[in-house]
Methylthioribose-1-phosphate isomerase (Actinomadura meridiana), 368 residues
Amino acid sequence: PQVTGRARDVENVDGAGPSGIMDGMTSEVRTIEWTGDGLRLLDQTLLPERVEYVDVDDVDTLVDAIRRLVVRGAPALGVAGAFGVAIAVRQAVREGWDAARRDAAIARVRAARPTAVNLAAGVDRALPFAADGTDAVVSEAQAILDEDVRGNRAIGALGADWILARTGDRPLRVITHCNAGALATAGWGTALGVVRDLHERGRVELVYADETRPLLQGARLTAWELDRDGIPCVVQADAAAPSTILRGLVDVAVIGADRVAANGDTANKIGSVGVALACAAAGIPFVVAAPWSTVDLSVPDGRGVPIEERPAEEVLTWGGARTAPGGVGAFNPAFDVTPARLVTALVTETGVLEVSAGATPSVVSSGV
Ligand code: MRU
């Protein structure tokens, strides 16, 4: 099924539209918000060409939007999951569902994508409020959204402090993979939150944005964010990343995460592990920036992280035309797991863990 929600606020990306999205910095972009009647999602499948929103007020539309990456990125998925409970509660009242049908609908939201633990965690946090009605659920979901923005600011500052303490005074050349920015969160971003903080301190020389095959979150979304905020960046093919690092052109890698296991193994967009291996070989830090809600202490190590496999067409076609010979299949894992030994630091809103030096996420769990 396709997204059937109402599209609105279509804008040329060079123009200022009624939402005001084009007027400010990308850090002010609202990727997800509750309108009072439902959820409004910035349709990330259309960026950078078009800024268009989808209004969601039923579960089928939300599940489809999550699967198609209209809304994406672990923290944004957590917020979407929590508001998804509110959507299900409203729909149950509107359509006369019994509790079993409502709970089945919520379970579909929870399982719409498997890797980012935030989606299920967002649903689980909002679910206890379902018995109290929509307003109670919305209030909890809004709290998750607000906490995410605050947490991202803290991640940005802590990550920038940690990086600058290790890299000295020179302007930094940063590599990032996929999009862990304002678009992937409720605002500001995790990995790009760190980059934004470094930029505010005048310490970013250049960001290498890996294009992130096959859905191009780096080329379409990260480059869009950085360009709008005046942060120097170039897009490179994913395959260029290890070479760029080994040539000495990068000082630090900063990426986001979809799930961090108890031992520090980190699931993130496919291709992250190649960046990590190259960083280890070049002796530069590989930094993971993620909210504590992305840490899953119930999973001992990366082997327990479910890796989403996406449709073959994403790999076998380009611009709608087939690129591989007919009859050939595809292997399309959306995520990989970087072993903890390759993760120099994990930056959360509560502090920085030096993972490859032996610190594990469970060390700070009591402080959260
Ligand atoms: O498939 P996506 O676009 O949802 O993948 C997103 C990523 O891999 C991000 O790096 C991760 O979710 C962290 S977002 C702050």
